[in-house]
TrEMBL record:
<dbReference type="InterPro" id="IPR027356">
    <property type="entry name" value="NPH3_dom"/>
</dbReference>
<dbReference type="InterPro" id="IPR000210">
    <property type="entry name" value="BTB/POZ_dom"/>
</dbReference>
<feature type="domain" description="NPH3">
    <location>
        <begin position="196"/>
        <end position="460"/>
    </location>
</feature>
<comment type="pathway">
    <text>Protein modification; protein ubiquitination.</text>
</comment>
<dbReference type="InterPro" id="IPR011333">
    <property type="entry name" value="SKP1/BTB/POZ_sf"/>
</dbReference>
<protein>
    <recommendedName>
        <fullName>NPH3 domain-containing protein</fullName>
    </recommendedName>
</protein>
<dbReference type="InterPro" id="IPR043454">
    <property type="entry name" value="NPH3/RPT2-like"/>
</dbReference>
<keyword id="KW-0175">Coiled coil</keyword>
<comment type="similarity">
    <text>Belongs to the NPH3 family.</text>
</comment>
<dbReference type="Pfam" id="PF00651">
    <property type="entry name" value="BTB"/>
</dbReference>
<feature type="coiled-coil region">
    <location>
        <begin position="495"/>
        <end position="522"/>
    </location>
</feature>
<keyword id="KW-0833">Ubl conjugation pathway</keyword>
<dbReference type="Pfam" id="PF03000">
    <property type="entry name" value="NPH3"/>
</dbReference>
């Protein structure tokens, strides 16, 4: 059997090549090689064959770098560049081309070029470091990686804009997609601060190089807003675009690499609240879920979102569920954990943040309620989390009513008991007049809830009437002090009419209260169910007829302007 042909080494290929193959007008000379390299000199001393190609087969380098070294050994000029300098230095060190062996040595020549021409330039340093990725361990052992990293860090300390302009924390809406895409782009002003004609970017580096450099920048107190800008650029370049591709377009290696990047980015993220926009954190979390990142990575992102949830939008919480066995359209379990993180970390005495998040949850529930697969327990658990945290506040219940209405509309198969469970999280006493009027006509609501809403409206009207009666004499006293003597008779007459009207209104309120009590007792006995279901709308109209049209007082006028309280 014939032996299979092995791949020729760069040195062996050069040895057998003609001059035209590489533009090298010479053959390898044993004497020239030995004069410049201590390692080659020792190898050639032990082997006297004319063909030395087999001795050079194990040299760890590529053909282009070996050719440069061979040209130097034979006295020809060589072209050093940022792209080849680290590989040349590593090969020169391996071959022992140092001052000890020869005063005219490649290590010294390449070292001077590296120090004077590469490290002094931002662009050239990044290019050199990028080229070292294929021989990273060798370059690290010679401290070449550290030298490049220190050069980059020093330049960033002097001018942080080399990392990009700080991100603008823009709160976006569904109708503002342009802001969503442009909010975090680096400012073109950065080019004004770079002396090189074309600015290279540290985001070109592999994660193995990028992560330790960024970590060192944070340790050296580079302003975090510039670090955050660089992190976003890195994610945009290596993760965000690729995770949108179909599975068959992305190799396993690429996905593993992206997973490694997203996990490293989470470790590098600053902990400061508000420094990273919630929309970017949400985008990272979605990518981490898609790439099946480590649990610590996903939990870390959820904690960060939770700490600044009052700065988020509904869009930031719409995290698509993943996997073939997904039961709901959105990852509501992740949203629950984010909510719990927010509430457990909220220490301010000002409850406005709690109200903002509660309203955010209302809007989120309204958005996801149209999912036919959204479970009743999921809906209730999210609503209860919001309700428990804002129990002592005066926030409006219209948002929760809107979410409940959508859920009942999209889940018509619910039993009466389940519909009452959904409405259990609704605080009827905090609904606006417009929402109450809509609810009174809403046939999807359980009858018991409708009665509760009507009773709540009746109590509000009674309270308004009582307050008006109590402060009436005071207002009249002020009026009397301002009027002239000849108007006293007229004022007394108006006051008497007002008092009579107040008494009449009070009687109507008491009558309405009795009716509500009677309805509640009938419902409890179960005999009034069908009658009330048919006459929900008429009850509301009757209430307006009895109260709304019988007084000119603004406080008790229930002719409210109708408006759409839950746009679909």
């Amino acid at each position: 059997m014939g032996k299979s042909k092995s791949k020729e080494s760069p040195s062996r290929k050069l040895m057998h090549a003609s001059s035209s193959d590489y533009g090298v007008p010479f053959s390898l000379n044993r004497g020239f090689l030995a004069a410049r390299s201590s390692k080659l000199a020792a190898m050639l001393k032990e082997n006297h064959e004319d063909d030395i190609s087999h001795l050079l087969g194990d040299i760890p380098t590529d053909s282009e770098t070996f050719e440069l070294v061979a040209r130097f050994c034979h006295g020809f000029d060589i072209n050093l560049s940022p792209e080849n300098i680290i590989k040349v230095l590593c090969l020169a060190h391996y071959l022992g081309m140092s001052e000890i062996h020869s005063t005219n040595n490649l290590t010294k020549k390449a070292g001077l070029y590296f120090q004077n021409n590469v490290l002094s330039s931002w662009n050239k340093t990044i290019k050199a470091l990028k080229s070292a990725e294929i021989i990273l361990q060798q370059a690290a052992d010679l401290s070449l990686v550290d030298a490049c990293a220190e050069s980059i860090i020093a330049k960033v300390l002097h001018n942080p804009r080399l990392l990009g302009e700080p991100m603008r924390n823009v709160t976006t809406t569904d109708d503002d997609s342009e802001n969503d895409e442009n909010a975090y782009k680096s400012n073109v002003k950065r080019r004004l601060f770079v002396h090189d004609s074309k600015s290279e970017d540290v985001t070109l580096l592999s994660i193995a190089l990028y992560e330790p450099i960024i970590r060192a920048m944070v340790h050296r107190e580079v302003p975090l807003e510039y670090v955050a800008s660089s992190l976003f650029q890195y994610l945009s370049k290596w993760v965000f675009l690729d995770t949108k591709r179909e599975e068959d377009d992305s190799s396993t290696y690429e996905r593993n690499s992206q997973r490694e990047i997203i996990e490293a980015m989470e470790r590098l993220l600053p902990q400061e609240r508000g420094l990273i926009p919630s929309s970017l954190l949400s985008k990272m979390l979605q990518s981490a879920i898609i790439l099946d990142a480590h649990t610590e990575c996903k939990s870390g992102l959820e904690i960060r979102i939770g700490k600044q949830l009052d700065q988020a939008t509904v869009k930031d919480l719409l995290i698509p569920a993943q996997g073939y066995a997904k039961e709901e359209q959105y990852d509501t379990e992740s949203v629950k954990r984010i909510l719990k993180n927010f509430y457990s970390n909220y220490t301010s005495t000002d409850k406005s943040g709690l109200v903002v998040v509660a309203e955010l949850v209302d809007d989120f529930l309204a958005e996801v309620s149209s999912d036919i697969d959204l479970k009743l327990n999921t809906f209730l658990s999210l609503a209860e989390l919001s309700q428990a945290a804002t129990g002592g506040t005066n926030r409006n219940s219209d948002g929760m009513y809107r979410a409940i209405d959508i859920y009942l509309d999209k889940h018509r198969y619910l039993t009466d008991w389940e519909r009452e469970e959904v409405c259990r999280v609704l605080d009827c006493s905090k609904m606006s007049p417009e929402a109450c009027e809509h609810a009174a006509k809403n046939e999807k609501l359980p009858v018991r809830v409708t009665v509760q809403i009507l009773f709540s409206v009746q109590l509000k009207l009674k309270d308004n009437v009582t307050k008006r009666i109590q402060r009436g004499p005071d207002n009249r006293l002020l009026k009397l002090e301002e009027d002239e003597e000849d108007a006293k008779g007229t004022s007394n007459s108006e006051e008497a009419m007002m008092k009579a009207e107040m008494e009449k209104m009070g009687n109507k309120v008491l009558e309405l209260e009795k009716e509500c009590h009677m309805m509640r007792r009938e419902i409890q006995r179960g005999s009034y169910q069908h009658k009330i279901q048919k006459e929900k709308t008429s009850m509301w109209k009757e209430m307006k007829r009895k109260i709304g049209c019988m007084t000119s007082l603004h406080e008790t006028n229930c002719h409210v302007k109708k408006k759409k309280v839950h746009p679909r």
